[in-house]
Write the structure tokens for this entry.
Amino acid sequence: MAIRGSAIWTRRTAVALAVVVPASGCGEDGPAAGPSSNTPVASIHIVPPPLDHNLHLGDTYQLRAQIEDADGNALNRDVTWFVHPNSVYPPPHASVSAHGRLTVESPLIFSLDIEAHVDDLSDQEHMLFRGWSFEEGVDVATGVEYGRAHLVANFGPPSPPRLYIDCLGDEVDLYVAATFPFASDVVRYRLDDGEERVEQWLESGALAALVYPEDPSALVLDLALVDTLVFAIQAVGGEEVSTFIPKGLGRFVESLVPPCGPSP
């Protein structure tokens, strides 16, 4: 299966912007270099990152814009980047440097509205970045430590399923939740290019999910070492195949150990 992406980029026709950040238009973390030119700018387009480029806590990404003249020739220009502070969700989990370097400041999935300007032209994007979301704490009802990691499928149906790892005390659950109804509790999945596994999972109506039927500690550790998880579910309308990119789970394994129990 071709791996195509891990972020969603949706064109927005209008967006209110409140913070101005100057940056280069060539994509490097510094001023744009090259000879100056009086050629008028005809278009500017924000360039999406590679779609399998997951972002996690502490990661950075260089914002880029493609600038062209009326004949489609690339131009070298300085770009001004605008970020709407109220659009960063959940706030304030991302920042942008003076040269357009985006830094992730939280392990949570986040989105933001961004706009690139050159001369009197602009382009806008609403960016939704995907990666592992993680939370931990103490369950109020039981006083027991808990941890949760979850990841939205990078590719698949329009409403992609989510992979969850839930831990409460020494109990660990791994399950895949989806918005579409299941036609079967039999799943197929493959880690990287390994052997395909066909298993019967447990259907949970309360979670709207299929739950791994055994202790998933070993599978959690496997997921921390692989690049892709291809997961097939039998839905009412036919088989739905999704691809998760679990990159970054290894960063959370040590945090998961106390509440979850698996040991590397």
Notes: Residues 250-260 form the longest helix (11 residues). The mean pLDDT is 76.
